[in-house]
Amino acid sequence: MRPSGRQLNEMRAISIETGVTRHAEGSCLIRCGDTHVLCTASLEERVPPWMKGSGKGWVTAEYGMLPRSTHTRSRREAKNGQSGRTQEIQRLIGRALRAGVDMQALGERQITIDCDVIQADGGTRCASITGGWVALRLAVNKLMKAGKVTTDPIMDHVAAVSCGVYAGQTILDLDYPEDSEAAVDGNFILTGSGQLVEVQMSGEGTTFSRAQLNSLMDLAEEGTKALIEAQRAAIA
């Protein structure tokens, strides 16, 4: 039934390659099927001005799609200013990753996660969050190895997956052909302990039932477990 031939609860192939850039404190290339995102974590011994003297750190994110990451070339946003979509996604990534970090333990320093979409086939924000966590984990590992923090600031894994209603069925991990035609589209962000961080859901010209929502939630839990296992394998 699915264009890819996958089962309703079947994820795309997941791979996370770490240490893919030379200079960033943490980096990975995450591949979720044909969606590929480069995630880097940059550490700075400073915080935003409004946080100075608080003793707390900060985690933030930036997101962008390369001009030919999609079927047709898009202009670089640096030339034209960020779109509302880009701003919304990078705020989402930052919020999601902060949910898994103890800012007091991080100390007065900032970690910026850059997520650059090399190739898009649906689920780029979810891949960015999942890969962004790996880059963040690697950067924090360096901090701990250097003795700059005494308590691990990372409290839990954070991962995200898309689920939706396509051709009347609830499905896991939408690719672009499914995402573009889904009657209901949702992004689910969960921690390693199964706690919800955020859910973004909307009906695309239709409504959905509580039963469908429950089914999507079940799929999301299943999917994020697989993603967290991939995270664990990547940082092992």
Automatic annotation (TrEMBL):
<feature type="region of interest" description="Disordered">
    <location>
        <begin position="66"/>
        <end position="86"/>
    </location>
</feature>
<dbReference type="InterPro" id="IPR015847">
    <property type="entry name" value="ExoRNase_PH_dom2"/>
</dbReference>
<dbReference type="Pfam" id="PF01138">
    <property type="entry name" value="RNase_PH"/>
</dbReference>
<keyword id="KW-0819">tRNA processing</keyword>
<comment type="function">
    <text>Phosphorolytic 3'-5' exoribonuclease that plays an important role in tRNA 3'-end maturation. Removes nucleotide residues following the 3'-CCA terminus of tRNAs; can also add nucleotides to the ends of RNA molecules by using nucleoside diphosphates as substrates, but this may not be physiologically important. Probably plays a role in initiation of 16S rRNA degradation (leading to ribosome degradation) during starvation.</text>
</comment>
<comment type="similarity">
    <text>Belongs to the RNase PH family.</text>
</comment>
<keyword id="KW-0694">RNA-binding</keyword>
<dbReference type="InterPro" id="IPR036345">
    <property type="entry name" value="ExoRNase_PH_dom2_sf"/>
</dbReference>
<feature type="binding site">
    <location>
        <begin position="123"/>
        <end position="125"/>
    </location>
    <ligand>
        <name>phosphate</name>
    </ligand>
</feature>
<dbReference type="InterPro" id="IPR002381">
    <property type="entry name" value="RNase_PH_bac-type"/>
</dbReference>
<dbReference type="InterPro" id="IPR001247">
    <property type="entry name" value="ExoRNase_PH_dom1"/>
</dbReference>
<dbReference type="InterPro" id="IPR018336">
    <property type="entry name" value="RNase_PH_CS"/>
</dbReference>
<dbReference type="GO" id="GO:0009022">
    <property type="term" value="F:tRNA nucleotidyltransferase activity"/>
</dbReference>
<dbReference type="GO" id="GO:0000049">
    <property type="term" value="F:tRNA binding"/>
</dbReference>
<dbReference type="InterPro" id="IPR027408">
    <property type="entry name" value="PNPase/RNase_PH_dom_sf"/>
</dbReference>
<dbReference type="InterPro" id="IPR050080">
    <property type="entry name" value="RNase_PH"/>
</dbReference>
<dbReference type="InterPro" id="IPR020568">
    <property type="entry name" value="Ribosomal_Su5_D2-typ_SF"/>
</dbReference>
<dbReference type="GO" id="GO:0000175">
    <property type="term" value="F:3'-5'-RNA exonuclease activity"/>
</dbReference>
<feature type="binding site">
    <location>
        <position position="85"/>
    </location>
    <ligand>
        <name>phosphate</name>
    </ligand>
</feature>
<feature type="domain" description="Exoribonuclease phosphorolytic">
    <location>
        <begin position="10"/>
        <end position="139"/>
    </location>
</feature>
<dbReference type="GO" id="GO:0008033">
    <property type="term" value="P:tRNA processing"/>
</dbReference>
<comment type="subunit">
    <text>Homohexameric ring arranged as a trimer of dimers.</text>
</comment>
<dbReference type="Pfam" id="PF03725">
    <property type="entry name" value="RNase_PH_C"/>
</dbReference>
<keyword id="KW-0548">Nucleotidyltransferase</keyword>
<keyword id="KW-0808">Transferase</keyword>
<dbReference type="GO" id="GO:0016075">
    <property type="term" value="P:rRNA catabolic process"/>
</dbReference>
<protein>
    <recommendedName>
        <fullName>Ribonuclease PH</fullName>
        <ecNumber>2.7.7.56</ecNumber>
    </recommendedName>
</protein>
<keyword id="KW-0698">rRNA processing</keyword>
<feature type="domain" description="Exoribonuclease phosphorolytic">
    <location>
        <begin position="158"/>
        <end position="223"/>
    </location>
</feature>
<keyword id="KW-0820">tRNA-binding</keyword>
<dbReference type="GO" id="GO:0031125">
    <property type="term" value="P:rRNA 3'-end processing"/>
</dbReference>
